Amino acid sequence: MSKKIQAWQKLDNAATIFPLMSGKRNQNNFRMQVTLSEPVDKAALERAVNAILPRFPQYDVTLKGGFIWYRFERAQTPVKVGDVTDWGMSPLPLFEKGGRTFRINVQGNDIYADFFHAMGDGAGTGEFLKAMIFEYLREKGLPVDAEDKVLTLETPALPAESEDAFHKYYKPLPLKELEIKSMQGSKAFHIEGTRYEDNGAECVQYTLPSHEVLEHCHAIGCTVTEYLGAAFAMAVYDGMIRDKKKKTRAIQLFMPINLRRFFPSRTLKNFSLFSRVKIDTSTPPTLEGCIKTIHESLKRDTDKALLQRKISTTVRGEIVGVMQVIPRALKRLVLSFSNLFFGKGKKTATFSNVGVVKLPESMRPYVVNMHFSLWPNSNSPYTAVVVSVWDRLNITFNKSIKEDAIEKALSARFVADKLKYVFTSRVWSGVKKTKAGNTL
Question: What InterPro entries does its record include (predicted)?
């Protein structure tokens, strides 16, 4: 590649917190699963990954702890593609010497790509995934064309792809104009249940025809995000709250906002914030009411002036003088305390609609489906991610509790709305307290 690969890189503003709040067992990871029309050739995929990786130097890294901050250093070994021995998302070897921040494994027709969130958000890593699959298909000698929808080996890597867009758009603001209070939030309803042992989890997936969901949303006058977010919120209420006699806190969904829509950037690193959607449960909510609340919340939280203040608030927390001199070990304690205000107990679940993955038409015969998922944690035992490809809309729930009342309520909603769906569920037994390795 013509672009010089740096020996080390700073973590972007949003990424700095992830290593500090992660360990060998509880990590901020997410997964992208691609299902192909034929069994995956592991050797060909490994060649493709290592061929395309220099095109994405910001991802060809390992995590290294400095005295003040973590940093990324250029990886010294090629990527090894593994076999899935168990589908669950076991920890990445982040804190081992030479341990990469992503992992690629295969099973049958499926490719599982696990990413540490410090690498980038779903929009950025999604471009890397598309490029990897495209290069794999070329490696197999299949007739595919990028059609300006994929970053290929022939596409020059731009410096802007590695920029810290939070710092780029940071504007110093007086303390009174920062969005500290609104970003802190308030206590939310917490989903409780019987935990799987050893950090085990269950993966629940729905697949619906995209065109049917779109037609239904048009008929009731809302977007897909509004409808599915409202359906999930109502499933939480119907499955976990409706029969409770005691008053409960509001359901609060964290819904990601891709800042590239409002602040032009080509960055492949993190550049997103969250909308905090609060569903009042003091009186029984309705689907229509939840749709309205989500619509109003997203409209409020995508105001560009508000987003600008939130960007400034986020960056201010990193560059404030005391954070530049506190040793990394002490930062863990500081952030553990601040998490009491900014994270722990402040959300019911994350609900993310990634949207439509735009692939070249020439890839249609070879790419059957895609699923994206987030791993649950002790603060929020449910995560929900929606992604669409071709005419398949996929919803993936990862949950760390055994109860299935939420899924039953959501399934009943789809039946009532006359939406066809395919439902699958798999349980992962977890991982014992052993050294993190390169297996699932």
Answer: Alcohol_O-acetyltransferase, Atf2/Sli1-like
What percent helix, strand, coil does the chain show, rounded to 5? 35, 25, 40
Count of CB atoms situated within 10 Å of the CB of 340: 11
Arithmetic mean of pLDDT, 114-132: 95
Which pLDDT does position 343 carry in this prediction?
56
* CB neighbour list of residue 306: distance below 8 Å, 6 or more residues apart: 179, 300
Residue 440 has pLDDT above 50, yes or no: no
365: buried, middle or exposed (CB in 10 Å: 19+, 13-18, 0-12)? Answer: middle
Name the band, by pLDDT with cuts 50, 70 and 90, for residue 24: low
Residue 17 — pLDDT band, cuts 50, 70, 90? confident
Domains and CATH numbers, the chain: 8-168 (3.30.559.10), 175-428 (3.30.559.30)
CA distance 63 to 81: 19
Q: How far apart are CA 205 and CA 384, in angstroms?
A: 10
Residue showing tokens 């906002």:
257
Say if CB 109 and CB 252 are below 8 A apart: no
pTM assigned to the model: 0.90
